[in-house]
Amino acid sequence: MVACSVSMTGCTPPAKTVRSITKLDVEQEQVLQVGDSLKISLGQCVGCADSWKVLDADTLVEVRDDGVVSHCKDCVGGTGDALFMLRAKYPGQAKVLFQYFGDTAVFRFRVND
Questions:
Q1: Domains in the chain with CATH codes
Q2: Handedness of CA 31, 98, 86, 80 (dihedral sign)
């Protein structure tokens, strides 16, 4: 396989693998490179009055809400995962605070050049 360069036309660079983390990873600092993406999956009730939301996010990272995926097929309610996609924009230390009802989750990141 030939690596792509800026001067090559019609060359598609290999896709980066997107890592996933869950609430179990809340105590661990995640190390990312600028431009890396990370999927955050937080378990919750589907159809309840609340959903995980971002309360605070450092400007070093961009967080996009990707909605909720239900674990239940052909039913109403049940459990699911709130999905968020994080992209590392600038080097430094960052944190993102999520809240769901009274529960909070703080994820910490170190973004390298």
A1: 19-112 (2.60.40.2020)
A2: positive
pTM, to two decimals: 0.82
Q: Dihedral sign, CA of 57, 63, 112, 32?
A: positive
- End-to-end Cα distance, the chain: 26
C-alpha 65/C-alpha 51 separation (Å) is 11
Q: Is 32 helix (H, G, I), strand (E, B) or coil?
A: strand
The Cα 30–Cα 10 span in angstroms is 34
In one-letter notation, the amino acid at residue 10 is G
| Euclidean distance between CA atoms 64 and 49, whole angstroms | 21
pLDDT, tens digit (0-9, with 9 covering 90-100), for 49-103: 899 999 999 999 999 999 999 998 888 778 999 999 999 999 999 999 999 999 9
